[in-house]
Amino acid sequence: MLKKLVLFDIDGTLLTVSKINRSVLVDALTEVYGTPGSAGTHNFCGKMDSVIIYEVLQSAGLNKDKISEKFERVKACYIELFRKAAQASDVCLMVGIPDLLQQLSERSEVMLGLLTGNFEASGRHKLLLPEINHYFPFGAFADDAPSRNELPAIAVEKARQLTGTTFADHDIIIIGDTEHDIACARVLNAKSIAVATGNFSTEELKKHHPHVLYENLGRTDVVVNEILHSTII
Ligand SMILES: [Mg+2]
């Protein structure tokens, strides 16, 4: 019987992608809007792909309406360029991830999913390259809502549609590398597991009060145990 819904962030949590992510976005923005805005230097951490596109173009003086007009075009362009450019050698899995996903997938009480700011098509491509996409039957993505804090409820609903089980509170575990992942867990009273494998140290993440904080996800037994025994507090 299903008991735990485990939702993973992608970038900085499952894997890291080379500079190609940023350079492809710069190329797509330049092709569609004639400017990359501030995409060359903007802080992307924990943000939705859609939000990033608006932020970098607004900083170049474009207004919201102008950006919205061509948003679907730039999204399609970015996804196409990313799929063409990204190779397996551009993606590096974080320590412990293959073992952790394998062990969790073997547990009948655990359902795995994604909760990420990536667009689904490019996010799935990041997972296909190191062959971990098959672990995730569903996910909540930047395509699904304008803000990350809306994604947990969407993920719970998608999980219900797939399994008939309605997950709630600390039976939902959200694993991510930024304060944004911690914040969106709080929206549903889900359990947050923060991991310092992205751009933020344990000291920085601690300030945002995750329920659990790890240097990395390398101690598989400890992480699996934490997930299986997650309780409402
Ligand atoms: Mg992340």
Question: What would you say this structure looks like, in words?
Answer:
The protein is α/β, with parallel strands linked by helices. Helix content is 42%, strand content 14%. The chain has two domains: 152 residues, Rossmann fold; 69 residues, Orthogonal Bundle (DNA polymerase, domain 1), CATH 1.10.150.240. It has ten helices and eight strands. Strand 7, helix 9 and strand 8 form a beta-alpha-beta unit. It starts with a strand and ends in a 5-residue tail after the last helix. The structure holds magnesium ion.
Task: Quickly list its features.
233 residues, alpha/beta, Rossmann fold, DNA polymerase, domain 1, 6-stranded parallel beta sheet, two-stranded antiparallel sheet, binds magnesium ion
CATH architecture of the largest domain: 3-Layer(aba) Sandwich
* Rg, nearest Å: 17 Å
Ligand identities? magnesium ion
Query: How many separate structural domains?
Result: 2
Largest beta-sheet characterization: 6 strands, parallel
The averaged pLDDT comes out at 95
Query: What is the approximate shape?
Result: globular
Helix content: 40-55%
The strands making up the biggest β-sheet line up spatially as 5-4-1-6-7-8
Q: What is the CA-CA span between the terminal residues?
A: 22 Å
According to CATH, what is the class of the largest domain?
Alpha Beta
CATH topology of the largest domain: Rossmann fold
Q: What is the number of beta strands?
A: 8
N-to-C order of helices and strands: EEHHHHEHEHEHEHEHEH
Number of helices: 10
| Amount of beta strand | 5-15%
Give the name of the CATH superfamily of the largest domain.
HAD superfamily/HAD-like
- Low-confidence region ranges: none
Structural class, please?
alpha/beta
